[in-house]
UniProtKB/TrEMBL annotation:
It comes from Aurantimicrobium photophilum. The keyword Transcription regulation applies. This is Pca regulon regulatory protein. Keywords: DNA-binding, Transcription, Transcription regulation. The lineage of its organism: Bacteria, Bacillati, Actinomycetota, Actinomycetes, Micrococcales. SMART domains: HTH_ICLR.
């Protein structure tokens, strides 16, 4: 039980509104959250007055207001995920001796927000601010593996979305069915793999960082040379040597952002 029930109820209502496809009636909020209807109306009135909620009187529904958007914009400006993730990735790279990066999902792309390069390792196309197709990258596949099926399908409605990297032999998934198989495997095993779909001769393994409601907040990937890893067993051995440190890093970042890790 929260020591500040009014604050707890207010935040629960905001979280509930954030997960709806559109504005909803106050009664459905009260029912879903098992809160007194009178309390929900009182909180919604304050949220509406402060701009965190919008009331649509013709529909008798409530949705998120512009002040809620300002909060998300402020989160982006302050870059807390970058600030929290950078020292953890630096420690990870120091321990494993391979380059690592932290990425977030932007539509069907991943945006790299932290890049930590290991000494004497191959140069990478990834860097802070670079975007790459999520379905081709290890971090992107890790993020996609944590999305609800309906959200994944909405992101990839047809084959035109499946862009490919020019000049690489391994082109990656070209259909939703192929992508679904990849992300289902990643969800089942707890990590994703990419080999040669971004850069020939390099492979990556990715794990997801989840927030407090289990939503994919970021993906952590480590990239390494695949030269000499000619058999599936050799590749698996290399991945298994990296996963304990990677998983621990993802759990710690999740904890730091009050996530599910």
């Amino acid at each position: 039980m929260s020591k500040v029930p009014a604050a707890d109820s207010t935040l629960r209502i905001l979280e509930h509104l954030a997960h709806q496809r559109g504005p909803v009636p106050a009664q459905s909020i009260a029912t879903a959250l098992e809160l007194p209807r009178s309390s929900v109306y009182q909180i919604l009135t304050v949220l509406t007055e402060r701009g965190f909620a919008l009331h649509i009187p013709e529909e008798r529904r409530y949705g998120l207001g512009p002040a809620a958007f300002e909060l998300s914009s402020a989160y982006t400006r302050q870059q807390p995920l970058t600030r929290l993730g950078a020292p953890l990735l630096a420690k990870l790279v120091d321990h494993i001796g391979e380059s690592a990066h932290l990425a977030v999902l932007h539509g069907t792309d991943v945006l790299y927000v932290v890049e930590e390069r290991a000494p004497r390792r191959p140069s990478l196309v990834t860097d802070v601010g670079v975007r790459l197709p999520a379905h081709l990258t290890a971090s992107g596949r890790a993020l996609l593996s944590a999305l609800p099926p309906a959200q994944l399908r909405a992101l990839y409605p047809d084959s035109i979305v499946f862009t490919q990297r020019a000049g690489v032999a391994n082109t990656g998934p070209r259909t939703y069915r192929e992508l679904k198989a990849l992300v289902s495997e990643a969800a089942s095993q707890g990590y994703s793999i990419e080999r040669g779909e971004i850069t020939e001769g390099l492979a990556s393994v990715g794990v997801v960082v989840k927030d407090h409601i289990g939503w994919p907040a970021a993906g952590i990937a480590v990239t390494f040379s695949a030269a000499g890893l000619t058999s599936p067993e050799a590749l698996n051995d290399r991945i298994n040597s990296l996963l304990p440190e990677m998983t621990a890093t993802a759990h710690e970042l999740s904890r730091r952002i009050h996530g599910a890790g």
